Amino acid sequence: MALKQHKDARVRYEQQVENSRAYVMPFIQKTKQLGPGTAILEIGCGEGGVLQPLIQAGCQCVGVDLDPPRIELAKEYLKDEIAAGKVEFLLQNIYDDAFFKRFNGHFDLIILKDVIEHVPEQEKFIPYIKKLLRPGGQIFFGFPPWYMPFGGHQQIAETKLASKLPYYHILPNPLYKAMLKAFGETQGKIDELLEVKSTRISIERFEKVVKQSGLKVMHKQHFLFNPIYKYKFGIEARNQYKIISALPGIRNFLTTCVYYTVG
After folding, report:
1. Domain check: are 175 and 230 in the same one?
2. Within this chain, do residues 209 and 249 fall inside the same structural domain, yes or no?
């Protein structure tokens, strides 16, 4: 069954702000100084909550998304910051020529928080966004590995059983679709979950694409318990055990979230 934050945008925004301040910013600051003059782009910014603490730190921010209602909410929640010229929100495809011409080589930091697992053709996408960086720029990625218990985002399902059952998203598509239908999910929700499956990404493939893109991992952290589980289940964040994190393949099934900065 969908959680409150899946339906209440203000709750979702406030959780984004808190998570960004407590986890995303401190992680990025291990390899990148943030403050006045730092140009930041968030791709898939949603309501803009991740950017809010960065704006407070003096960074110059741009948020871009393809979801009109969420961009409108970002403009509402951060209207004072927009009026002050501290942030801009764009309803635009980053592949648009106009976007590339304006922002080619522009940013010190690009943020993708719970986004890369939704992006098709990651092998094309990551080299492309690399072009938007200034020399010495970095990219932050935070995402759930596909094979983790809820890597299929089945928690957004409408029916209780479909949203609570772990791991079944890794089944072959026909069986997965049949189970969702049997649980009572609508065709629209089934299509949404199958789309997530089509763009899935593992830790190993992510690191391979990063390397192929001419980027290096600057810092990484694997989590046994995703920091956002505080809001979903009342569980505090916990780092993955080092021995598990070092085991390719197996770690994907037991790691609920990973953070990376690459550059």
Report:
1. no
2. yes
pLDDT average, residue stretch 99-108: 98
- Identify residue 244 by its one-letter amino acid code: I
Gap between the Cα atoms of 42 and 56, Å rounded: 15
249 pLDDT above the threshold of 90: yes
Determine contact, residues 122/161, Cβ cutoff 8 Å: no
Question: Residue 18: its pLDDT value, please?
Answer: 97
Model pLDDT, residue 5:
56
Sequential DSSP letters for 91-152: E--TTSHHHHHHHTT-EEEEEEES-GGG-S-HHHHHHHHHTTEEEEEEEEEEE--TTSTTTT
Note whether 180 and 252 are same-domain residues: no
User: What is the torsional sign of CA 25, 29, 117, 240?
Assistant: negative
Tokens representing 218 are: 């600057």
Q: How many domains does one find in the chain? A: 2
- Amino acid letter, residue 59: C
Domain ranges, residue 169: 154-198
Six token digits for residue 226: 């995703």
Two structure tokens written together for 209: 């694409």
Confidence label for 2 from pLDDT (cuts 50, 70 and 90):
very low
- The CA-based diameter of the chain, rounded to the nearest angstrom, is 53
Q: How confident is the model at residue 1 (pLDDT cuts 50, 70, 90)?
A: very low
CB 146 within 8 A of CB 117: yes
pLDDT by residue (tens digit) across 130-180?
A: 999 999 999 999 999 999 999 999 989 999 999 999 999 999 999 999 999
What is the strand order of the sheet 238-239 is part of? Answer: 87-91, 60-65, 39-43, 107-113, 133-143, 257-262, 217-225, 238-239
Reported as type and span, the H/E element at residue 4 is: helix 4-7
Q: What is the model's pLDDT at position 9?
A: 85
- Both 110 and 174 in one domain: the answer is no
